[in-house]
Write a structure and sequence with these properties.
This protein has 3 domains: 70 residues, Double Stranded RNA Binding Domain (2-Layer Sandwich), CATH 3.30.160; 126 residues, Orthogonal Bundle (DNA polymerase, domain 1); 197 residues, hpI Integrase, Chain A (Orthogonal Bundle). The N and C termini lie far apart (96 Å). By secondary structure, the protein is mainly alpha-helical. The strands form 3 sheets. A 3-stranded antiparallel sheet has the order 1-2-3. Helices cover 49% and strands 10% of the residues. The chain is elongated, with a radius of gyration of 29 Å. Helix 3 packs antiparallel against helix 4.
Length: 411
């Protein structure tokens, strides 16, 4: 045993004397390399290095992790095991749809490339390759889809930029989680080591209908089962899932209010589900509606009561299909598009009805941005010009909806 190795053994023995949770050692192999090992909780972990110095550094870092409460198994933890811990943690923090999207990204793009690799061995070059491979895979898939949809009404073809950005986000969250658990001491994606892909949102600009187009659409759809929902979205900017998840118990006809605190969503493996939350933290809110709308809604409620009495309708949702069942968004969108065609107005996304409402409130009616946020349930004042006057009184919130209602000549 040479002098350097003896020095290392001496230092490790001192560490062993201080510690009670484990022991470690460094020894020289027949090949002239240095092997460090540590025993903890009945298991042994070892690594071989070219120099005694590197072995000593690794041993000290491993002992430190153990002393801080880390189990030795995390040192050898695979990406698959880490991803499983992370996604289970997210299930207690995020909405089911969000978790579902994370699982899809993991199963499709990350796990196939990194499944058995040790987390501590994953470096910048590995992550960049995963992103490059994902980009190529997505481009191939989208080329096929765009070729099939060449005659569709889509204004611009998909590019996949947003998908690549989401893959980066998920990977970065997992590596941050690994560092928080002290599985790694440095996130290989930090400091722009793996740059976040840019997403050009300019191709997804929203379209705002003119007042004339709104009126033509409402005239065309007046006999639709969804007419009052279309009108509600146009005058309040309520989200599609929030509108479809509205129940009669959320309506107060005496106060002219509707309470928004849930939404209807399709959950994989469960079908259509009413969630007990909205999309954003500002999503829960009370909408103060004009008398003209509430009068129509009350008449609609009488029809609902009669259907319940005749046992034709058993659910409590306000807006249902023609069979009085919860509405699949794709079915409602199909009918929405048919009335656009009938009215001969600009072909827009359903979400653009929300954008239309918000745009008129801010730009034409001069409603303070803070009040528009309260009505629409939006998350960011910065998104809607934060320099507007801050005000959150009920009078202005009611005025925002009332003025929108007055602007539109209805059937």
């Amino acid at each position: 045993m040479n002098e350097e190795t003896e020095e290392i053994h001496e230092e490790v023995r001192v560490v062993k004397h201080r510690r009670e949770k484990g022991s470690g050692s460094v020894s020289k192999t027949k090949e002239g390399k240095f092997r460090a090992f540590i025993d903890s909780n009945g298991s042994r972990n070892s690594r071989t290095f070219e120099t005694a110095k590197d072995a000593k550094i690794w041993l000290k870092e491993t002992i430190q992790r153990t002393e801080e409460g880390m189990k030795i198994s995390t040192v050898n933890m695979t990406f698959q095991a880490l991803a499983s811990l992370w996604i289970n943690n997210k299930k207690g923090e995020c909405a089911e749809r969000t978790v579902e999207s994370y699982e899809y990204i993991l199963d499709t793009y990350l796990l196939p490339k990194l499944r058995g690799r040790r987390v501590s061995d994953i470096g910048t070059i590995h992550i960049q390759k995963v992103l490059n491979d994902a980009r190529n895979q997505i481009k191939t898939d989208i080329s096929i889809k765009n070729a099939k949809n060449i005659n569709s009404t889509r204004k611009t073809p998909q590019t996949g930029d947003r998908a690549i950005q989401l893959i980066w986000v998920v990977m970065n969250m997992i590596m941050i989680y690994a560092r928080r658990l002290r599985i790694i001491s440095y996130n290989p994606m930090s400091d722009d080591a793996v740059k976040k892909p840019e997403f050009d949102n300019s191709t997804k600009k929203s379209t705002v209908w003119s007042i004339e187009e709104i009126e033509k659409f409402l005239n065309a759809s007046v006999d639709s089962n969804y007419y009052l929902m279309f009108l509600l979205v146009i005058i309040t900017g309520i989200r599609q899932a929030e509108a479809l998840g509205l129940e009669w118990s959320k309506v107060d006809f005496d106060k002219n209010t509707i309470h928004i605190d849930q939404q209807l969503q399709y959950i994989k493996g469960k079908g259509l589900q009413i969630t007990d939350h909205t999309k954003s933290k500002n999503g829960e809110r009370y909408l103060i509606l004009p008398d003209s709308y509430m009068i129509q809604l009350k008449e609609f409620y009488k029809i609902h009561q009669q259907l319940v009495k005749n046992k034709k309708k058993v659910n409590t949702l306000i807006f249902t299909s023609s069979e009085y069942t919860p509405v699949f968004q794709t079915n409602m969108i199909r009918e929405f598009k048919s009335y656009i065609k009938k009215a001969e107005v600009t072909n827009i996304r359903f979400h653009d009805l929300r954008h239309t409402a918000i745009s008129y409130m801010v730009n034409d009616l001069n409603i303070p941005v803070a009040d528009v946020i309260k009505v629409s349930g939006h998350t960011s004042e910065a998104f809607m010009m934060t320099h507007y006057v801050h005000s959150t009184n009920d009078e202005n919130k009611a005025r925002a909806v009332s003025e929108m209602d007055k602007m539109i000549k209805k059937p």
